[in-house]
Automatic annotation (TrEMBL):
The keyword Signal applies. Residues 1-20 form the signal peptide. This is Uncharacterized protein. The keyword Signal applies.
Length: 229
């Protein structure tokens, strides 16, 4: 398992909170999340990711991603959680990532995506990185509801691309599940996905600008925990 965390406070933070009671993460799947908030690290909202314990009864493992709320701060439209896997050796081919997906309470976007630009492209978009709007990963959204829906995203992998990253993402509030996954090479008769993942890049850019302006006004701070306690 690969857990990545980077804090930008007070307005934006890339966070992943894992506790002893957290759901089990399946091998070979990785998590990256960003939550924009007014508080500092250790408080506020967070994403929870792992195998849904309720799926044990059905015998079909289901990966669950949700934004939890531990405060009263409204969710920001560019809060993003994403769980992904990397595959290599598909340069120059058309590939398809599919799963059964369902979502509940999704306030912005939930679904599947793929990219050959690197796994952190989703987080770079949610951070409002300059120019990233030209490289948003293709994504296929699921309609919020209680029913499982087949969802697929198809892309042409550039010839020189060393890897392709595929996964499930949640933008804003809510939760999303996926099960019965498949990944395969398809022929030219299968159309590529032309819709991008549903990230409010303009909102992310404005939020990051506000964050940087506020942080520039902070007074000097001493080195934290110089004793390495």
């Amino acid at each position: 398992m690969d857990y990545r965390a980077l804090f930008l406070v007070p307005l934006a933070a890339l966070v992943l909170s894992v506790s002893a009671a957290a759901p089990r993460m399946p091998d070979d799947w990785h998590v990256e999340t960003i939550v924009h908030r007014m508080q500092g690290p250790g408080v506020g909202p967070k994403h929870e990711v792992g195998i849904d314990p309720a799926s044990d009864a059905s015998g079909v493992p289901t990966l669950h991603l949700r934004l939890t709320r531990t405060d009263q701060v409204p969710a920001v439209p560019v809060d993003v959680g994403d769980v992904w896997q990397q595959a290599s050796g598909y340069g120059g081919q058309r590939v398809r990532f599919s799963a059964e997906v369902r979502a509940a309470g999704a306030s912005r976007w939930a679904g599947l995506y793929m990219t050959a630009k690197s796994a952190n492209m989703v987080i770079r978009a949610a951070q409002g990185a300059p120019g990233v709007e030209q490289h948003l990963p293709p994504g296929a959204a699921v309609t919020p509801g209680n029913d499982w829906q087949p969802v697929s995203v198809v892309m042409d992998v550039p010839k020189q691309a060393p890897s392709v990253w595929m996964g499930m993402a949640l933008v804003g509030q809510g939760e999303v599940w996926m099960r019965k996954l498949s990944f395969d090479v398809v022929g030219p008769e299968v159309p590529v996905t032309t819709t991008p993942i549903g990230i409010d890049w303009e909102g992310a850019r404005k939020n990051m600008e506000q964050t940087q302006q506020m942080m520039a006004k902070f007074p000097p701070q001493a080195l934290a925990n110089a004793q390495l306690d």
